[in-house]
């Protein structure tokens, strides 16, 4: 029986992306090959529990919620996850995934909404960006930049222009929690007339840095 290694499954409001604020079931997979400086889910690097697909589905079903977000860690680091995405889509869920951008998204079920990071210089993991993924982005997908400094912001502007990102999908700018002031990032975006969407982490505004919410 196929299994995935799971850190937690919980019901909360989506804190980021274009579905922000919507009740969502989060399936947090264990393990990640990246070590970003701002990571707030390092508790998902190891441990976890092996669960069968049926066990995971049973956990999801109890919440009677149509939105499911596969996250991590890095959910695409577990190869069996790809078939589980397809299974969720076949069952009629509205599925999204949060991925760090270092794994191939081309083989994901096309019904999955992809929220893909491109790692900035101050993340410490910029060299892991798999830029080939940009060719596989759909209009319903999003590219997210977590911005730690003005240097990161300037790099993001350059990268958007280089890959024509705003013509491919929605682009999200997220201030790294505690590193960039919300007002500063907002002013930079407005001054430069960028066609991006600024987002803050709604779950942290509501619950702070608690996990599993």
Automatic annotation (TrEMBL):
It comes from the Bacteria. Residues 19-209 form the Radical SAM core domain. S-adenosyl-L-methionine binds at residues 38-40, 73. InterPro entries: 7-CO-7-deazaguanine_synth-like, Aldolase_TIM, rSAM, rSAM_QueE_gams, rSAM_sf. Mg(2+) binds at residue 41. Substrate binds at residues 13-15, 28, 71. Transmembrane segments: none annotated. CDD domains: Radical_SAM. Pathway: Purine metabolism; 7-cyano-7-deazaguanine biosynthesis. Pfam families: Radical_SAM (PF04055). Its EC number is 4.3.99.3. It catalyses: 6-carboxy-5,6,7,8-tetrahydropterin + H(+) = 7-carboxy-7-carbaguanine + NH4(+). [4Fe-4S] cluster binds at residues 32, 36, 39. Binds 1 [4Fe-4S] cluster. The cluster is coordinated with 3 cysteines and an exchangeable S-adenosyl-L-methionine. Binds 1 S-adenosyl-L-methionine per subunit. Its cofactor is [4Fe-4S] cluster; S-adenosyl-L-methionine; Mg(2+). It is an enzyme of class 4 (lyase). Keywords: 4Fe-4S, Iron, Iron-sulfur, Lyase, Magnesium, Metal-binding, Queuosine biosynthesis, S-adenosyl-L-methionine. PANTHER family: 7-CARBOXY-7-DEAZAGUANINE SYNTHASE (PTHR42836:SF1). Catalyzes the complex heterocyclic radical-mediated conversion of 6-carboxy-5,6,7,8-tetrahydropterin (CPH4) to 7-carboxy-7-deazaguanine (CDG), a step common to the biosynthetic pathways of all 7-deazapurine-containing compounds. Homodimer. Belongs to the radical SAM superfamily. 7-carboxy-7-deazaguanine synthase family. This is 7-carboxy-7-deazaguanine synthase. It comes from Kangiella japonica. The lineage of its organism: Bacteria, Pseudomonadati, Pseudomonadota, Gammaproteobacteria, Kangiellales.
